[in-house]
Design a protein that fits this description.
The protein has six helices and no strands. It is mainly α. This is J domain-containing protein.
Length: 149
């Protein structure tokens, strides 16, 4: 504060003194003090023919190619291994022998599941994958029960 006044008050007083000391040089062109056009510029945007309003868009669209529909995807053929769902087919793939232990049977179950699990195939082939997994689990469970005797 300068001499009992805030900084803001002292700046306002100084600006008022500067305005009083300088004589006005020119009157503003409008009541708001804006030196610009005194009237607005208006263009005639109406047309006689209403269809001519879309001409720029029509010219642009004429250069575009007509969209071609995407070809329908060909149905995928079921893999051959998923078509073999019988117990004998799955048994041949597992190749369970009398020499297998619980550990080797567990490894056979995991490797068969990695290749045949229903979550790893397309939805339309899941029925066959379920049948194969069911058969494999049945055969491996029987072999483990045989080991426990």
């Amino acid at each position: 504060m300068l001499f009992g006044q805030s900084v803001f008050q002292s700046v306002v007083e100084r600006l008022e003194r500067e305005v009083e000391d300088t004589p006005p040089t020119e009157e503003p062109a409008s009541a708001f003090g804006i030196n610009s056009f005194s009237a607005s510029i208006v263009f005639d945007t109406t047309t006689q023919d209403p269809s001519s309003a879309n001409l720029p868009l029509d010219f642009y669209l004429d250069f575009l190619e007509e969209p071609t529909p995407a070809p329908a995807p060909e149905p995928e053929r079921m893999p051959a291994y998923l078509e073999r769902t019988s117990l004998s087919d799955v048994s041949d793939e597992l190749a369970i022998t009398e020499k297998d232990t619980a550990e080797t049977l567990g490894e056979k179950r995991r490797s068969f599941a990695r290749a045949n699990h229903p979550d790893a195939v397309r939805p339309e082939f899941r029925d066959n994958a379920n049948r194969r997994m069911t058969a494999a689990n049945l055969l491996i469970d029987q072999a483990i029960r045989f080991l426990d005797r």
